[in-house]
């Protein structure tokens, strides 16, 4: 029902993943139920089917890059809208059953991405121990709790969930990594503009020199900054390019609205993926006087007078 | 009264000028009265004061370039709107009193511009005769009729008006010259779009690198071609540039209207000088599918749905 | 001979014109001879024929706009180069024979442009006196000296030349007018860059939407400001546009040189009209670090290394 | 030694990976030795250390998107150059030990990415069998050969390498996936231009509105098409944006060289990643007459004459 906050949240599971940690950071535990989904497609599918009201899925990661399953899952299929973005700095712990010490560890498991991001520290902490892959960091924690392995690289929430204790905190080789999750919902009223919003799009343009430039020009003439752009492979459709991009501002803003309408005209396809509060801790560039809603409104009034010959 | 054709036409006089010839070509003699004005400022002034309903004044000439008095007269003062453009290929005749032959001619007079455009032919036709300046080609014809000079370089209409006969036709050194006149009127309903219209503007922008490019970009993103551009000197106002320009299309067209509104926002000043049928015998560039009124309308509808979350 | 200053200067005559005044302000009287020419084409012709070493001709006027005879005279015919620009604020005097007083004046003569620029003051000073046209302001002064008229509107230099005295100084209706003259010479070494130079061009481009924008983009990407642009009528050649423009910088500057070469490639025609010191009392916009000759040089060295694989 | 083909090829191992398959497709088995590396960073490291002459690593995948380890591994650290691109359409087989039939399979293992791309088919072929993760598709094949699992999803080359037989071919849920690998080598002579080349770059620009547009404009004014662009996260460095992009053409081409030099000037940082033959089966857009090397050369000659005053 429009206006009613979603109450059934799907997330990229299983329980104990960073996605769950992100969801907890975004939605108070008491607000609604949580549904772990075995993958991004599954998480999106339960929203599309109506079995969940929203889904929290990863969109991009500062180490791993964009998450194709989410990019493509939003670009195709029934429309979904991003209503919120959530940033989480994953904090990997090396966790074992209570009583375990580092020197006891003979086997360590985790998702291959997590193993990749902690390879250096693991080599120091557990020399000679060969890391083993698991389907998720949370699954690795479960396996440790079940006694299948001695230690897991996982989120603190997974350690807690499975009754493990941390043998070492912050075992990532490179700090500063952050994952951007998005909360997606079925089409419905957009989040109200806050003055510091982002808008996400997928634009498909013909394959000609300057097509991208023309696309970007629609933003530039209206003083709208992009915060992300990525050409997406479209191997199956020769002769077209697909761009996934985020810009500053909200569809309700006059300048953004006019840009969206222009892109709708000039692109082969344009999919609107939502306008939502910016949550990366940065501020949008200030809107100059000539690009405010007031300036657009005043210009519209002027144009009306001009068209009526009242100059 | 809206819809009523102007009936009192001022023009750049005196009687017998090319401006009168252009007016005759544009408005059937029976339609309304004609008021010769001693100069462009005077012609504009009688429209502004309400003593005439419209004025026909020269805007640019393929030999002499733009006519600053008209450019500046429209850019400043109370607003006036161009409602029509009229092209006239001036045809200079060398005219004398009936009975005069070329060999009788001892003196020839005309406006200095006309003398300049016929200097070569005059030297051939009247070797040794020093041309004398007059305040207008029509005044020179009057002087010849009054016996002050033997011959005048003037418009055929002036020869006819003053009872002169042509000693030589088409005495311009360089054929192909054409003068563009505009009919200007007080603010009022714009001429209806015809599908082949022009729009005239004066835009003032700050003096920074790229200011002109930004201005032109507003046309380019909306696929609007310019047909004339001229930077106008603004010596008295350091740090600003004024551009006089004509573009294809009508203010009532969606793409032109959006461009006008954008320029209104981003320029220091923007003066709308009118939308009127193109009359230079050329066709505007075809409007591509993405820039038609229908495309703009469809995009506006799409944006409305997006803003309502009905994607 | 290259390096030798021109010694025979043609100028738009007759003697006593503002062109002569401008020439005097630019070249010390002792330096070379002066040759009055009866018109701009004649002034350019004597340089092309070798009968003069340079010519001073008006290019644009803040009241009258650009001077088509000069624009077209430089754009066509054998190449000439602008080597200097000279600005003169015309100071009109109302001059009569010694002993004449305002109340004695029954007739006043001048070039029609000068009469137009002083019409208001003349009506105040000489109520009821009808102004008479002359072929130049200097010719009017000569006629007054010869007793043909009582007063002339002319340059102070003309009054002096013909032994007239000023009945009133500064009789222009609108102060601040200024004329820009250019000194043109046959092709030869360009004036050395001064750090505050201008470059003049005529560019011909095909008639397609965006052609002008593409042209201007070549300047913008290299951070070069335009100081003047004017579309020139090309009635005789359908489908092409000609632009006359001035930009900041010297052909010897790396950024300007690269822009010129780019325009040479992309324009249908490009005529270089010269690089010369800026003399309008303004400073070019500062060249940013990324557009200096040093930056271009450093980038060229980098590219050489890249092409050699020494990255 | 310049000109000598690399002979020690590192690749993303272990043996039997798709990277090895791509390497085999690109370099005849007899040419040089092959060194499996345990990860992309390791593969790049052995080239940087001199322990290998080149490395074949994945750059982007039509299903999984760009490979951050390769993107970042090339953008940072000692320079490496891409000398070749290799496209491989991964063909997944479900492989078991000889004699195994589908109905015998109780366990199936593979790299999580491969499991994700074959989830649908596996559910059909092996209902009820829970897929198990392995560190690579090749490792899964090895484990099957060792009897640890019954089946593996792997490359045909891995099945062959470990003596397995295919239980099912082409088990990807979605056909058409393709992976783009690049062969990287230490700085050295660039591959000779072929007329159908690509150039790869990483550009870092300041975070201001229009920065990306300015960057792209350098390509557009020189008629260079982009084939890929991606903004890369730079969380650790606030206020800057990093773009990874590929364009058509070779650094040795005049238009590409001028664009590279321009980017070198205007970007905060620019890293050249190589020019190499295009291998995706597409042709670069035709170079128009105004952008050929000949046109650049002719323009350079013209500029030289202009600067010498020989117009």
Topology:
The structure is a homotetramer of 311-residue chains.
Chain A lengths: L7 E5 L5 H9 L6 E5 L2 H9 L5 E8 L3 E2 L1 H8 L5 E8 L4 E4 L11 E3 L1 H6 L1 H7 L5 E3 L3 H9 L5 E4 L1 H6 L3 E4 L10 E7 L11 E10 L4 H10 L5 E7 L7 E9 L5 H13 L2 E9 L15 H15 L4
Explain what this protein looks like in three dimensions.
Helix content of chain A is 30%, strand content 28%. Chain A has 311 residues and is of the alpha/beta class. Chain A folds into three domains: 102 residues, D-Maltodextrin-Binding Protein, domain 2, CATH 3.40.190.10; 76 residues, D-Maltodextrin-Binding Protein, domain 2 (3-Layer(aba) Sandwich), CATH 3.40.190; 122 residues, Alpha-Beta Plaits (2-Layer Sandwich), CATH 3.30.70. Chain A is elongated, with a radius of gyration of 23 Å. The termini of chain A are far apart. At the A-D interface, strand 4, helix 3, helix 4, strand 8 and helix 8 of A face strand 4, helix 3, helix 4, strand 8 and helix 8 of D. Chains A, B, C, D: Pathway: Amino-acid biosynthesis; L-phenylalanine biosynthesis; phenylpyruvate from prephenate: step 1/1. Chains A, B, C, D: It catalyses: prephenate + H(+) = 3-phenylpyruvate + CO2 + H2O.
């Amino acid at each position: 029902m429009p206006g009613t906050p979603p109450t059934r949240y799907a997330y990229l599971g299983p329980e104990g993943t960073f996605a769950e940690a992100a969801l907890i950071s975004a939605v108070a535990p008491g607000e609604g139920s949580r549904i772990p989904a075995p993958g991004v497609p599954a998480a999106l599918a339960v929203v599309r089917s109506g079995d969940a009201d929203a889904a929290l899925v990863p969109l991009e990661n500062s180490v791993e890059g964009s998450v194709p399953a989410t990019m493509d899952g939003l670009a195709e299929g029934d429309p979904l809208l991003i209503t919120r973005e959530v940033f989480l700095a994953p904090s990997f712990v090396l966790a074992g059953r209570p009583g375990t010490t580092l020197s006891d560890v003979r086997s360590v498991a985790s998702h291959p991405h997590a193993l990749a991001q902690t390879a250096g520290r693991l080599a120091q902490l557990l020399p000679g121990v060969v890391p083993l892959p698991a389907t998720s960091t949370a699954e690795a924690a479960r396996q440790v709790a079940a006694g299948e392995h001695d230690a897991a690289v996982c989120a603190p929430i997974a350690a807690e969930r499975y009754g493990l204790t941390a043998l070492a905190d912050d075992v990532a080789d490179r700090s500063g990594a952050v994952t951007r999750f998005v909360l997606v919902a079925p089409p419905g009223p957009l989040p109200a503009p806050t003055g510091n919003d982002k808008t996400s799009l997928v634009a498909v343009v013909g394959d000609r020199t300057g097509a991208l430039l023309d696309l970007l020009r629609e933003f530039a003439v209206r003083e709208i900054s992009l915060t992300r752009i990525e050409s997406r492979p479209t191997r199956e459709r020769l002769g077209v390019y697909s761009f996934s991009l985020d810009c500053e501002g909200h569809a309700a803003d006059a300048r953004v609205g006019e840009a969206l309408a222009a892109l709708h005209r000039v692109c082969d396809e344009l999919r609107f993926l939502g306008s939502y509060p910016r949550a990366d801790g940065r501020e949008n560039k200030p809107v100059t006087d000539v690009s405010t809603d007031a300036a657009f409104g005043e210009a519209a009034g002027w144009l009306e007078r001009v068209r009526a010959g009242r100059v």
